[in-house]
Amino acid sequence: MLQGKKILLGVTGSIAAYKSILLVRQLVKAGAEVKVIMTSAAKDFVTPLSLATISKNEVLVDLFEEDSWNNHVMLGRWADVMIIAPLSCNTLAKMAQGLCDNLLLATYLSAVCPVIVAPAMDEDMWKHPSTKNNLEKIKSFGNKIIPVESGELASGLFGEGRMAEPETIIKFLEDIFFLKKELDSKKILVTAGPTYEAIDPVRFIGNRSSGKMGIAIAEELALRGAKVELVLGPTSIPVNNLSIKVHRVESAAQMYESSVQIFAHADAAIMSAAVADYTSAHQLKEKIKKTDNVFNIELTKTKDILMTLGQQKKAGQILVGFALENKNEKEYAIGKLKAKNADMIVLNSLNDEGAGFGYDTNKITIFEKDGSEFNYERKSKQQVAKDIVDRMIKLMYAK
Ligand code: CTP
Questions:
Q1: Is 143 marked active-site?
Q2: What is the predicted pLDDT for the residue at 346?
Q3: How far is CA 81 from the centre of its chain?
Q4: Domain 6-177 listed as CATH 3.40.50.2300
Q5: Residue 226 and residue 31: Cα distance in Å, rounded?
């Protein structure tokens, strides 16, 4: 899968740099062409000679060498992907700030290919707010972060912060290169986030959906080559993949309008938004004053977007809905699958810990039209997005 891929590996000063030797070895074994750039600090942990021998390419460290200049722009253009592994706290901070005081950073700033990082640091550094901010910052640049692992750290303490193992990094890379083709030229609608139903100019009825799950799904689809149209309710969660077309909406009625239009030309839709079931019957132009002790709002039902798309679905289109339940979960989920003419329903149970609104993790069960049921463990929302997209692809290509 990595045969012939050009991989630029950046190695920074961290005890985990020893793993870069194993990583290069496995990449080369998989048929990739590997060039390595190191920071000077990395040389204290692993020698350029070892990495040059294993990669079969000269290892670059400095912007200038004797009488020549290392062309960071061309290195950034040569690569299909740049991986920085291990990524130290120091280099992370410099990347977040756009500093450019070595060859690795100059290449990072000029790279036009995807950039993936595998951080490595001690748990306290990993948990420091400034590290978290810096990671968020580079994520907002579109860089992909391979999660750290837990275990024994260089300090002798146990905790989070270990760099991912070379096998995990290679799997991550394969996902980027291999999965890209599966949804090439497919147009997919995703709805995500909450809706806000206005009561008056300052107040609304909303819900606690963050949009994280739907955004993770949109990003996973985009990674696999789909043209994604994301209809997104109000949220502050960023959408990092610039290829995703984001339609920002506020109310259920706006989400309905955008979704119906997009679905008419889409191959599939994944409806993960927490759409309000009711909206205020009278949206007042003036702010409501607190005069009465009791205040009633008249609510009317919103249009069910998933149900509408289910009615409009053409042969070959795949429709995926969500169900959030706290009792008779399976029965209700299967009921929705049928009532809304969906091909697949993703069930979140409110009874599962660490699942649902606001969390970074989710635990799902998938029900499909042919009666099959798939149960998954609790995972990060990114991993859950992969599972959902995997099933959706199976349905798309089974048709
Ligand atoms: N949905 C939608 N439009 C609506 C309401 C919901 O598209 N107006 C979609 C959601 O995006 C989700 C699924 O329908 O995919 C959820 O089904 P729904 O019946 O709305 O769930 P609940 O609101 O939880 O239903 P219930 O009344 O059974 O609690």
A1: no
A2: 97
A3: 17
A4: no
A5: 27
